[in-house]
Amino acid sequence: MYPLLALASTALAIVTLGYVVLCVVSPFGSCRRCHGHGHHITRRGRRRLCRRCDATGLRIRTGRHLVNAAQRTYRAGTR
Ligand SMILES: [Zn+2]
Predict the structure, then answer these.
(1) Which residues are within 5 Å of ligand 1 (an ion), measured at CB?
(2) 20 and 67 in contact (C-beta within 8 Å)?
(3) Fewest beta carbons within 10 Å, which of 1, 9, 21, 42?
(4) How far is the CA of 42 from the centre of ligand 1 (A)?
(5) Looking at the predicted structure, is the pLDDT value of residue 1 above 80?
(6) Of 18, 30, 75, whose CA–CA distance to 55 is shortest?
């Protein structure tokens, strides 16, 4: 076994676990389009409501999306 490979895979596992925990604890991140403000300034200097997040400023994390999908699949399978 290569020690470096073992170290790399351990680090990857820790990062993945950390990301999953982050998705469970805090499922929403701030919208990248409007940076969580719910609106953005157009080039003409006018305020526009953000359509990407429906002016909530929140964006569901990709990881949380996966967690939700996994839960749905699990529930559908055990029903
Ligand atoms: Zn937005």
Answers:
(1) 31, 33-34, 50, 52-53
(2) yes
(3) 1
(4) 13
(5) no
(6) 30
